[in-house]
């Protein structure tokens, strides 16, 4: 943290002090200014507050009061209030960006604060972080007048505030930690400084670089500002031996705090400055806490209210280290400055409790032997169980295959591979019910090979079976997937055509008849045979959509086709369809 005097002096309040030229010219200029300032204080009632007066300090918090950083700041403010007692009156004003994000909401907040502080304006302002600084730059004069402003943990410069007093930031702790790196690891040849390139963050990096090079002029210092988490992790992972990392980024309440991941990826020890970083992988540093910053900011605000000049804070000893990180990087305790605090430095359990540790070790050894014997027994049983499981699985697989084969045979014609009559009845009944619900037409087709007995008699049953198989394949290949085709009995086949009116069915069946008539069917060992087929077609509109009635009608039409000379399609008259 650095308290710096403003680059420009605060403007003098309007009043008689601006009339310096009207004073007696025989007085020295310094005395004339003092008399005029005293006269202005008497007339205007302004100036440093008397020591006995209760001083009012307004603290503007950039975010809500529930975040860890804000809770620590509030604890530090409470300690400052207790320390100063009746001489201090603190007013905490949270400027939650989530609740006041639009210009209209910000104007409401401005009017609310102006009304709240109008009866008793604060003697000084503490602005925490950048949101509060930007709010003051826009509305501070309207709400608080010319009360001096102290910036707390802000990366901004405060140049937009004419009444800017000083800033409490982390620069002194960063600078002290930079010098600490070389004291702890004097062989360090390179230091990578990770930080913020905004405003005071950039100035803190410059101070850290100056501190390092002043301590060791030939030291290689690389300042990397504004990197993403992945970029920082990649940069620290490739550091050469005798390197170190100074993590100079401010702490974060959100998931964007990348220190743990950077420290885990680093190939060199990481040092930092904030107490909130302890236990996250850093080796150590001069650590400042939000409580300390809040207390220093209140003290500086009170000094500003009394008219005292700004004062630089001193970095308190001792530095703090994490034993686990020191062990990771091989940094011995003898290399640390005298009086250093070493946390997480508990001795191992076997040294703290030797007797209990021996008993536990004996019990563990006995349990290990018992477990080993049990594991051997279980392994033997496991092998037997695995063998039985394999045999059982093989048996189940064979049973399943056999059951599947039986189930397939139960619904499939063994010669043609088409569904058998029973399976057709089940599938057709489902389609009939669906057609009844949707109100759509469907057609039923019966087909019978003409003079098939002569094929069996002249060419043999093997040739007849081959012809039946070829005809079944032709039917399945030339009808739609939605159509239900089956072997009904002997050389008779049946097909149900969903969503098909009798006129369309007659056209489709006629194409099939012509295709069969022009095809020479493979008859196995016998020469190819030419056959013809007769078809009977029935439409659902001709009956009450009952499957048995349709079958009877289709069989009747098939018989008509046979009587009419075979090799033809017989269906409902076109005018009836």
From TrEMBL:
Coiled coil: none
Keywords (A to Z) from UniProt: Membrane, Transmembrane, Transmembrane helix
Gene3D superfamilies: 3.30.70.270
Top EC group: transferase
PROSITE patterns in the cross-refs: GGDEF
Top-level division of the source organism's lineage: Bacteria
Record-linked Pfam families: GGDEF (PF00990)
Name of the protein in question: diguanylate cyclase
Organism expressing this protein natively: Fundidesulfovibrio magnetotacticus
Organism taxonomic ancestry: Bacteria, Pseudomonadati, Thermodesulfobacteriota, Desulfovibrionia, Desulfovibrionales
Name of the gene: pleD_8
């Amino acid at each position: 943290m650095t308290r710096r005097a403003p680059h420009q002096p605060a403007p003098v309040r309007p009043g008689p002090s601006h009339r310096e030229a009207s004073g007696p010219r025989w007085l020295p200029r310094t005395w004339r200014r003092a008399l005029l300032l005293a006269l202005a204080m008497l007339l205007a009632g302004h100036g440093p507050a008397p020591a006995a007066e209760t001083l009012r300090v307004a603290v503007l918090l950039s975010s809500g009061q529930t975040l860890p950083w804000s809770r620590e700041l509030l604890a530090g403010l409470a300690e400052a209030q207790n320390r100063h007692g009746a001489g201090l009156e603190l007013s905490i004003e949270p400027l939650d960006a989530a609740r006041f994000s639009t210009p209209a909401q910000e104007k409401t907040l401005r009017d609310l604060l102006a009304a709240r502080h109008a009866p008793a304006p604060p003697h000084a302002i503490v602005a925490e972080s950048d949101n509060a600084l930007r709010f003051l730059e826009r509305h501070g004069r309207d709400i608080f007048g010319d009360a001096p402003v102290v910036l707390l943990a802000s990366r901004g410069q405060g140049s937009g505030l004419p009444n800017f007093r000083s800033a409490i930031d982390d620069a002194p702790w960063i600078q002290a930690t930079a010098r600490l790196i070389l004291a702890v690891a004097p062989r360090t040849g390179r230091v990578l400084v990770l930080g913020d390139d905004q405003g005071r963050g950039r100035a803190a990096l410059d101070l850290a670089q100056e501190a390092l090079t002043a301590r060791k002029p030939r030291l290689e210092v690389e300042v990397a500002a504004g990197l993403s988490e992945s970029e920082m992790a990649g940069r620290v992972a490739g550091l050469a031996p005798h390197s170190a990392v100074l993590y100079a980024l401010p702490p974060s309440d959100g998931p964007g705090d990348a220190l743990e991941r950077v420290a885990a990826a680093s190939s060199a020890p990481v040092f930092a400055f904030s107490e909130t970083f302890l236990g996250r992988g850093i080796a150590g540093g001069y650590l400042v806490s939000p409580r300390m910053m809040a207390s220093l900011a209140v003290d500086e605000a009170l000094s500003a209210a009394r008219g005292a000049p700004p004062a630089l804070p001193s970095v308190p000893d001792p530095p703090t280290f994490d034993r686990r990180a020191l062990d990771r990087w091989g940094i011995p305790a003898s290399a640390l400055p005298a009086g250093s605090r070493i946390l997480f430095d508990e001795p191992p359990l076997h040294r703290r409790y030797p007797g209990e540790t021996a008993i536990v070790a004996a019990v563990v050894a006995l349990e290990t032997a018992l477990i080993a014997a049990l594991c051997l027994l279980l392994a033997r049983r496991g092998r037997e169980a695995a063998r039985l499981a394999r045999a059982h699985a093989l048996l189940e697989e064979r049973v399943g295959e056999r059951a599947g084969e039986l189930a397939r045979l139960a619904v499939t014609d063994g010669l043609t591979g088409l569904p058998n009559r029973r399976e057709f009845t089940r599938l057709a009944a489902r389609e009939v019910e669906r057609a009844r619900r949707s109100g759509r037409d469907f057609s039923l087709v019966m087909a019978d090979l003409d003079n098939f007995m002569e094929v069996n008699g002249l060419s043999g049953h093997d040739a007849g079976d081959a012809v039946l198989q070829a005809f079944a394949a032709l039917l399945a290949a030339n009808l739609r997937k939605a159509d239900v085709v089956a072997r009904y009995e002997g050389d008779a086949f049946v097909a149900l055509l969903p969503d098909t009116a009798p006129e369309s069915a007659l056209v489709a069946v006629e194409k099939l008849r012509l295709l069969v008539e022009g095809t020479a069917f493979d008859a196995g060992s016998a020469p190819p045979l030419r056959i013809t087929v007769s078809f009977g077609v029935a439409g659902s509109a001709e009956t009450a959509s009952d499957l048995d009635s349709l079958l009877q009608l289709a069989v009747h039409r098939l018989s008509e086709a046979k009587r009419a000379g075979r090799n033809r399609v017989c269906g409902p008259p076109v005018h009836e369809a």
